[in-house]
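tool_call: predict_structure(chain=1)
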Amino acid sequence: MNDAAQNAANAATHNADTKSELEARSTNRSRTPLSEEFLAFIGNQWDDAPATITDPDAAVTIRAAASAAQGRRKKVAERFAGQLVVIHAGGHKQRSNDTDYRYRPHSAFAHLTGWGTATVPDSVLVIDARDAGVHGDQSHRDASCTLFFRPTAGHGTDEFFANPSIGEFWVGNRPNLHEVSELLNISTRDLAEFETFIDGADDVIDLTFEEVAEFVSELRLIKDDFEIGEMRKAVAASVKGFENVVRALPTAAATNKGERVVETAFYSAARIHGNDLGYDTIAASGEHACILHWIVNDGPTRPGDLILVDAGVEVDSLYTADVTRTLPVNGRFSPAQREVYEAVLEAADAAFAVAKPGIKFREIHAAAMAVIARHTAAWGLLPVTAEESLNPEKQFHRRFMVHGTSHHLGLDVHDCAQARREMYLDAELEPGMVFTIEPGLYFHANDQLAPVAFRGVGVRIEDDVLVTETGVENLTAALPRTVDEIEKWITALQC
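tool_result:
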């Protein structure tokens, strides 16, 4: 062996030894007894574990979601007849060292099972459509579907008490196979059998296949009655969150990191009235409102400034709202703030006015941009007329609003994101679609083109809408939108 090869071998041995040593150190905290006598002792004299779903309302919601999911699985089977479609829920995501983020299953898995927040991590849905259509009209045949997951271990195993990731002593009991099968009306099997089940199959497809990702994303473009009901729940919980925000503004104004006070006020509503936040809250006061995804939220909330709050509650079915309101910290808009705010409101109202079945999704944005172009031109901010700026090759008004006006909403805050362009931007609106309308204007403090009175002012108004047979319903109508309504609302809540 030459010197280079010997050095490489030595390095490999060293690395292996180091890895083993580091892995051993991960047990430094462990004091778990594992003697045979202890294993026998801890495994005896236990009552049966209680049901994992103890809230009757939660069980009703899951069963309703599962019922809707059956039809969706059938559509997947029809589209991918002759193949084995595998949808992974996904596992825990590491935050740091041995701490994980709060678990949330993949949206496609949630949509096709209805399991929601009760999902056991690492579960796998298999839609076996290999025999679908063999005997003629497959629309009259259900695919064979199986849900694989890791059930609760027996009391006689060390996993029961010694595994901090999945042990009952650490994370509570998981449901058994029968319980989930009854709850979701689907066949269930132990996750330990999954690899054997698909071993050797050459017709397996999953979400890494573009056609699968597109199809399951496009399945969510039009919401069914269950989904619309869940969206209403998410919006109602979000309204409570914004009421919390308004009540917290005086405390926020007296705190160095007032944005954190606002963020926390909304978060408490998300956890009490829903499952979690649908996304990181934007609590952007003063010039931070011009930073579109400001989630640091460590700034002060000064009287005289506006605070832009973009937040949404995710409910237990994992559907989320997405709402923005821009509020005066001291309860009153200044003349310049009012001028910018009312321009944005006019743009939002223009988008509402055109939104109805039959128009293309992109027309909503065009309607809002026509108003933004007209106002920015009138303020002398454009090198051309508003009409010229609307030319696709110019778009100078977009300096002050670089984002889009609308996106689909549902299980994901930017729902249906893998849908084809012709099914999204170029598609016609249909009843059952749920999306946002959210124009804005942002004048950065260092923007030399902006009027001095506007610098540091950022305004966005975002509502969640449902397409009906004749137009759209504003699901977030319970939150005030006009300057006068907002000022009265703040006064009333802070009394």
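agent: The first strand starts at residue 84 and ends at 88. Proceeding to next step.
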